[in-house]
């Protein structure tokens, strides 16, 4: 295992550093320098496979594969996973329901797209990740306010706002087969969570994904993978279920879900999705995993600003739910608050699990409501 990164080797986490046979320190923003370093390395060690863990460098990973004639996604196959407009165009052609959409690189283009699509709508980067720089716009006045906030984005996607519950469809694939599926439920949907500081966002990895209410979303997810030609690796797709039952595609990344979602998938299965992913990439197969629990992460935001001064409610919540609590990852007293607008991870996190969904929701809501952190 050879690492390539733009951090010096001595700042890598020890667990990562100790499992690498070699590390190349090079600016990942300089494609020529990366290729030169790897071709020099290839004189001493054969390169068999290239994997990338972070969306901004997926195209670079594809260029490396093409340069070394390696298996895996090409640049052309990778681009629809990075360009949200190209992604939706390919899925439209395959007959998959996507939000009405358009891309724009100018202020005038955004106004024209908004006029065609109509309000409410979403404005977001075509190559973004998560909900960063993503805004709901309900009127021309709101669009006027949002335009300065996306001025730094080269190309934005303007799309229909889907009023619905939001879910994920996550897979690990190997040799063209889906080896593992996960459906997670966002409570509330991410755009709402990043609009109100008082919310404790949560993601729930569901146990009973064979339930009929998720069938259409899972079927659409498989159709999306087929339309995009995805064969091996981790995927993270988001989709909507409207009140009338219609399902609508959101977006997809050819990478694991972020915000500690793989952790709750592990706690839901008592498995190791990191090992499953590695086995899938290397052998094309993996040992089956069984969903035993519903598992949720609850992200907590402190009240106030500055340093954490005290935490309330944790002791008695743990006394009541200790057997169901998997992780408590809260900041130390005296630690600095994070910017809740910049990270879903917020100021801390708790992971809980329960075999019954109603039991999990009750417990997660208690941690969301009764666990409180203060800063000053």
Q: What is the total domain count?
A: 3
CATH topology of the largest domain: D-amino Acid Aminotransferase, Chain A, domain 1
Quick one: biggest sheet?
Answer: 8 strands, antiparallel
Percent of residues in helices comes to 25-40%
CATH superfamily of the largest domain: ATP-grasp fold, B domain
What sequence of helices (H) and strands (E) makes up the elements? EHEHHHHEHEEHEEEHEHEEHHEEHEEHE
**Mean pLDDT score, rounded?**
92
Number of helices: 13
What is the number of beta strands? 16
Overall shape: it is globular
Distance between the termini: 45 Å
The top-level CATH class of the largest domain is: Alpha Beta
For the biggest β-sheet, the strand order reads 11-10-7-8-9-12-15-14
CATH architectural type of the largest domain: 2-Layer Sandwich
Our Rg estimate from Cα atoms comes to 22 Å
State which percent range the strand residues make up: 25-35%
Structural class: alpha+beta
- Uncertain segments: none
Characteristic terms for this protein:
D-amino Acid Aminotransferase, Chain A, domain 1; four-stranded antiparallel β-sheet; 376 residues; 13 helices; 16 strands; eight-stranded antiparallel β-sheet; Dna Ligase, domain 1; single chain; alpha+beta
How are the secondary structure elements laid out?
Elements: E1 2-5, H1 14-18, E2 22-25, H2 31-41, H3 58-68, H4 75-82, H5 84-93, E3 101-104, H6 107-117, E4 121-125, E5 135-137, H7 140-146, E6 156-160, E7 165-174, E8 177-187, H8 190-193, E9 202-205, H9 215-228, E10 233-241, E11 247-253, H10 261-269, H11 273-283, E12 294-300, E13 308-312, H12 314-321, E14 325-329, E15 348-354, H13 357-370, E16 372-375
Parallel strand pairs: 1-2
Antiparallel strand pairs: 3-6, 4-5, 4-6, 7-8, 7-10, 8-9, 9-12, 10-11, 12-15, 13-16, 14-15
């Amino acid at each position: 295992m050879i690492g390539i990164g733009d951090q010096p080797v001595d700042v890598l986490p020890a667990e990562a550093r100790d499992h690498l046979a070699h590390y190349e320190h090079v600016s990942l923003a300089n494609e020529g320098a990366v290729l030169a370093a790897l071709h020099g390395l290839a004189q001493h060690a054969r390169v068999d496979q290239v994997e990338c863990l972070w969306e901004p460098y997926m195209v670079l990973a594809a260029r490396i594969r093409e340069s070394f004639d390696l298996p895996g996604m090409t640049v052309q196959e990778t681009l629809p996973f990075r360009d949200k407009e190209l992604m939706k165009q390919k899925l439209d052609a395959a007959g998959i329901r996507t939000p009405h959409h358009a891309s724009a690189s100018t202020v005038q283009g955004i106004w024209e797209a908004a006029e065609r699509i109509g309000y409410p709508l979403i404005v977001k980067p075509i190559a973004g990740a998560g909900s960063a720089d993503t805004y709901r716009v309900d009127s021309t006045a709101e669009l006027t306010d949002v335009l300065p906030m996306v001025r730094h984005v080269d190309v934005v996607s303007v799309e229909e706002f889907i009023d619905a519950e939001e879910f994920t469809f996550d897979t690990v694939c190997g040799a063209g087969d889906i080896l593992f599926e996960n459906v997670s439920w966002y409570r509330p949907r991410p755009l709402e969570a990043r609009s109100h500081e008082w919310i404790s966002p949560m993601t729930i990895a569901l146990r009973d994904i064979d339930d009929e209410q998720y069938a259409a979303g899972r079927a659409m997810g498989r159709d999306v993978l087929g339309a995009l030609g995805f064969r091996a690796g981790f995927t993270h797709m988001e989709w909507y279920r409207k009140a009338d039952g219609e399902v609508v595609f959101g977006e997809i990344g050819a990478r694991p879900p972020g915000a500690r979602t793989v952790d709750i998938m592990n706690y839901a299965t008592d498995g190791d999705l990191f090992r499953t992913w590695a086995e899938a990439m290397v052998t094309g197969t993996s040992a089956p995993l069984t969903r035993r629990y519903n598992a949720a992460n609850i992200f907590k935001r402190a009240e106030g600003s500055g340093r954490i001064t005290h935490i309330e409610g944790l002791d008695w919540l743990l006394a009541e739910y200790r057997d169901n609590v998997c992780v408590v990852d809260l900041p130390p007293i005296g630690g600095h608050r994070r910017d809740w607008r910049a990270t879903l991870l917020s100021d801390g996190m708790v992971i809980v699990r329960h075999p019954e969904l109603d039991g999990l929701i009750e417990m997660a809501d208690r941690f969301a409501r009764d666990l409180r952190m203060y800063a000053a």
